[in-house]
Specification:
Layout lengths: L4 E6 L6 H8 L4 E6 L5 H4 L4 E4 L5 H10 L1 E7 L5 H6 L1 H26 L4 E7 L8 H7 L1 E2 L10 H18 L14 E7 L1 E3 L12 H11 L3 E3 L9 E3 H13 L9 E3 L7 H11 L5 E3 L3 H9 L3 E2 L2 H7 L7 H19 L1
Helix pairs in contact: 1-9, 3-5, 5-7, 8-10
Bound molecules: 2-amino-3-ketobutyric acid.
């Protein structure tokens, strides 16, 4: 008897997992995996939740034997700042962990004779520009430009995009029993994300969401980048919609395994000004950390997302003003009023 297919989400308790579990669970049976116990509210939406490590091969074997997995959203990762404190551990989680999930996808395809969709959140950290002058000159970067990341996390993301392409098109290409079709790997290079419901940790784009949440809580915030630091950001609902949109796109429409998506790109100073407008008493001081600043300076100030618009109709719904007035401020105010 065929079992009901499920969608597996790794890193389900993280920043993006929350929104994704609730969106996906409306149409799919979701199995959520995370190092931490999922919140009860999320658990209720899932067919099953598992506490465990993507490096634990026994756990992945158990998952493979218990469920028929038809799509994997592999969100689990160590972000850019945290990865610089233990680069080898980051490599293990970010690369070996991804490899384990790609192997799981291949194994599921073999068992169930159906292609597995593999959705991979890559990052603007895959880019690396050599200097501020080069960043300004590069402007909106296309997917194949400036690929010299300076962080372990960025190197890991870029390499995993290549691994995905390999598992999709070239896996065991010389073996007599090479699979007829590879994993259906699709990835998005996300900008910094801003959610009303979760505060990220361990990233370098965290100054955006951190200053907003601090202001809402009435706490002062020391921003670790300069006022003129500029990278792309996006409101979380657009990020979730983009993953769902890419998942739904017909394979023939996709000309690539990797897509930029963009929404808005305020400087840290411009973002702080909007936060102060919303929370007039907010105290935001700029005290740049030279080394974290250097990471932000190595990321592009904007991305060209023409490929995503053309191939699968990506379009962000939230520019910065709408993100603030319709999504971030109402939800954040409600959240901290309750706390
Ligand atoms: C980070 O700052 O590491 C992440 C990212 C930009 O991918 N938020």
């Amino acid at each position: 008897m065929r079992r009901k297919p499920v969608v597996l989400i790794t890193g389900a308790s993280g920043e993006m997992g929350h929104g994704l579990v609730s969106a996906l669970s409306q149409e799919h049976d979701v199995v959520a995996l995370d190092l931490k116990e999922c919140e009860p509210e999320l658990t209720k939406m899932c067919r099953a939740t598992m506490v465990g490590d993507i490096l634990d091969s026994k756990l992945l074997e158990r998952l493979a034997s218990e469920y028929e997995i038809h799509a994997i959203f592999h969100l689990a990762a160590l972000l850019s700042t945290r990865s610089e404190f233990s680069p080898e551990a980051a490599h293990e989680v970010n690369v070996t962990g991804t490899l384990n999930l790609l192997k799981l996808a291949v194994e599921q395809e073999r068992r169930h004779s159906a292609r597995v969709k593999f959705l991979f959140p890559s990052s603007i950290a895959a880019y690396g520009v050599a200097s501020l002058a080069a960043k300004r000159a590069a402007g909106r970067v296309r997917e194949e430009q400036c690929l010299d990341p300076t962080t372990m996390y960025g190197c890991n993301k870029l390499y995993c995009e290549h691994l995905g392409r390999y598992y999709s098109r070239h896996y065991r290409q010389l073996a007599a029993d090479a699979p007829p079709a590879g994993v259906d790997f699709r990835s998005i290079r996300f900008p910094g994300l801003v959610s009303a419901f979760t505060v990220p940790s361990g990233g370098t784009s965290d100054y955006g969401p951190e200053m907003l949440h601090a202001a809402a809580k009435g706490e002062p915030y020391d921003c670790f980048v300069r006022e003129d630091a500029r990278i792309p950001f996006m409101a979380m609902p657009d990020a979730i919609d983009a993953l769902l949109g890419l998942m739904a796109a017909p394979a023939e429409a996709l000309s690539s395994h990797v897509y930029n998506i963009g929404a808005f790109n305020p400087s840290a100073g411009e973002f702080a000004a909007l936060v102060k407008q919303a929370f007039p008493g907010a105290v935001i001081r700029f005290s740049p950390d030279v080394r974290r600043q250097a990471i932000v300076d190595s990321w592009p100030e904007d991305v060209d997302d023409a490929r995503a618009r053309r191939d699968w109709g990506f379009k962000s719904a939230y520019d910065l003003d709408r993100a603030m007035s319709e999504y971030l401020l109402p939800n954040i105010k409600k959240r901290y009023a309750r706390a």
